[in-house]
Amino acid sequence: MTGLNQRMETARLSLRAPRPDDADAIFAFASDPEVTRFVGWPRHESRAATRAFLEFSAAEWERWPAGPLVIESRDGGDVIGSTGLAFETPYRATTGYVLAKRYWGRGFATESLTAVLAVAEKLGVQRLFAHCHAEHAASARVLERCGFALEGTLRRYLVFPNLDAARAQDVLCYARVFGRREAGRD
């Protein structure tokens, strides 16, 4: 790994780059219709889709200083979800998160996103943004709790393939800006 230590620890979680031996654990949550309802990637219908994600992840880690991350519980070491950074440029990246259903509502999304924010700032990201389906209130609350500012609603902006692959949906655009403050603005 070029930009990130092998493992990043929080109070209850470890975040690290995905490995091939994570395939079964990733497939378990990435194939769950309820978990993947509001994500921007197709639900994993087969383990081949999970292997393709692992190949994509490895390529991102080769190209950029960070990439997708699995979220492990420090209590037992189970892979409980994923998060990470997707770079558009060396100074602009996007983030997101997904957790297995049994881990919802326990603060793990906020805890993992807080860690990703620290990594982004350390790596020199100036703008970190996230798109959230306009009806996904729980995700919007996590972003707001982590200091992301709502920049607006992007109408018919993204296709959510697990909702309706034929129609783009409205999304809320949230962002965190790092670095120098200018005249009262972040």
Tell me the fraction of residues in β-strands, as a range: 25-35%
Instruction: Sum up the overall morphology in one term.
Output: globular
Number of domains: 1
User: Helix content range of the residues, please?
Assistant: 25-40%
Report the major sheet. 9 strands, mixed
Give the CATH superfamily.
Answer: Gcn5-related N-acetyltransferase (GNAT)
- H/E topology pattern: EEHHEEEEHEHEE
Can you tell me the CATH class? Alpha Beta
CATH architecture: 3-Layer(aba) Sandwich
- What is the averaged pLDDT score? 93
Helix count, DSSP H or I runs of 4 or more residues: 4
Total strand segments: 9
Residue windows where pLDDT falls under 50 for at least 5 positions: none
Separation of the first and last Cα atoms: 30 Å
Helix-strand makeup class: alpha+beta
Predict the CATH topology.
Aminopeptidase
Radius of gyration, whole Å: 16 Å
Secondary structure: elements and pairs:
Elements: E1 8-9, E2 13-16, H1 23-30, H2 47-63, E3 68-73, E4 79-89, E5 92-95, E6 98-99, H3 108-122, E7 127-133, H4 137-145, E8 149-159, E9 168-177
Parallel strand pairs: 5-7
Antiparallel strand pairs: 1-2, 2-3, 3-4, 4-5, 4-6, 7-9, 8-9
Helix pairs in contact: 1-2
